[in-house]
Each structure stands twice: as C-alpha cells, then as structure tokens.
Amino acid sequence: xxxxxxxxxxxxxxxxxxxxxxxxxxxxxxxxxxxxxxxxxxxxxxxxxxxxxxxxxxxxxxxxxxxxxxxxxxxxxxxxxxxxxxxxxxxxxxxxxxxxxxxxxxxxxxxxxxxxxxxxxxxxxxxxxxxxxxxxxxxxxxxxxxxxxxxxxxxxxxxxxxxxxxxxxxxxxxxxxxxxxxxxxxxxxxxxxxxxxxxxxxxxxxxxxxxxxxxxxxxxxxxxxxxxxxxxxxxxxxxxxxxxxxxxxxxxxxxxx
Length: 257
Fold this sequence. Notes:
It is a single chain. The protein has a single domain (2-249), classed as Undecaprenyl pyrophosphate synthetase, CATH 3.40.1180.10. 48% of the residues lie in helices and 13% in strands. It has helices at 2-19, 34-40, 45-66, 78-81, 86-102, 126-139, 155-172, 177-183, 186-190, 238-249, and strands at 26-30, 70-77, 114-118, 146-153, 203-206, 225-228. It has a 6-stranded parallel sheet, sandwiched between helices. The protein is globular and about 70 Å long. The mean pLDDT is 92.
C-alpha cells in the first residue's frame, strides 16, 4: 500500500515536471516485445499481440492529454509479411480491429483521432487494406491527434519506393535520367516518402530492451532523439512514457549542426 502511494506521488511529480517542459511534436514508437510478453506468461503469441493492441489505447490517451499532435506506431514490418502462419493471420486481424477501434467517434479527446496508414500496403491482404482505407476515410476530416500506423513497413523499402516514384514522375515530365541525377536534392526524395505531409519525428521510443531501429523511419529519423525502454510493449506504463519525455527534454538537440 505504501509503495503504491509513493509510486503515484512520484508519477504525479514527474508529470508536472514533463508538462512544464518542451514536448516533442511527433513521437514514433516501435512496439516491440508482444511475443516475449506472451511467452513469459505461457500464452500464445496472439494473446501477446492483443495485449499490445490494448496498450495502444492507453498510450494515445497519454499523448492526447499532453497535447502531442503526431504519433507513428510501427505495427508490422515488411519482414514479418514474409511469413505465412497462424500468428501473422491473427496479428493482421488484431491490427484491423485496433485501427477500427481507434478511429471510432469519441476517441482521442477533442478533435478525435485521424488515422493514416503507411507502408507497402499493396503487399497486405485485400481485406486488411480495405479496413485501413475505411479508417482513413472515416477520420479524414478530423483535426485532433494524427496517428500514422506503419503496417507492412520497412525503411529500405520506403526509400526504394520513394526513388521509384520520383523517377517515374520525372520521366512523365520528360526529364532524362541524367537530368534527374544532376538536379537531385534530398528534399526531392522526401516528397515521395510514405509519410509526406507530416513532420519528422522528434522522439522515437523502442520497447523490450532492444537497442536498434530495425529500419524504422530511416530517412525521417535523421535528427530524432531515441529512447530505449526495457519493458515489453504490453507492460509499457504511463510512467515509462513520462521518463522517455523527461529524457528527451534533458537533451540538447543540435539537428546535425
């Protein structure tokens, strides 16, 4: 009882400290550890993914309460799409259910949640693509929390697709490959990324103790701050998020300069 009280007091103090500082505009999250969470509890992998999906609701509530306007959640990589098993099929169903739930009216506080899906979506089953499109269309007019769900996403694939899109667009405009190469700027590639229209992430969080990005937002994260947390994603708590934000606020951001 006393320990719980001290924990709540500490969390409230930390929330006040974080709330008084500069918060990131865009937070990206690598939701890692669902399977290990399930294995540690002798559960099937689908139960771990379901527990992780439930924690997304809580996380977005924390972001909305703090006024963080942009969030990107990495839900499924292109590497994982290479599998053909019951776990992947269950995960795709959970992702569809989660996106529909997050897009429901009344979610995300004032303004609601606006959902966009990014990734090599053409690699997804049609049923999943249809659910993602429906969520995007249903939330397109909302001006509240903007949530990007990265599904079938890989950083290398994104850059390859961006270059392909750029070259095709320039070819249609009558430019030669030599012309494109001579005038190519980083901004030209950025205009063709999956995430066009959103600011680059300020803070990227990865759970489960892994200390790597695994290709998440490779281009966009050039000047992001990183925070690695030992907790599995289903166990990621508000206090873990507040600690990540405090860590972010204590850094001096140089943006490559």
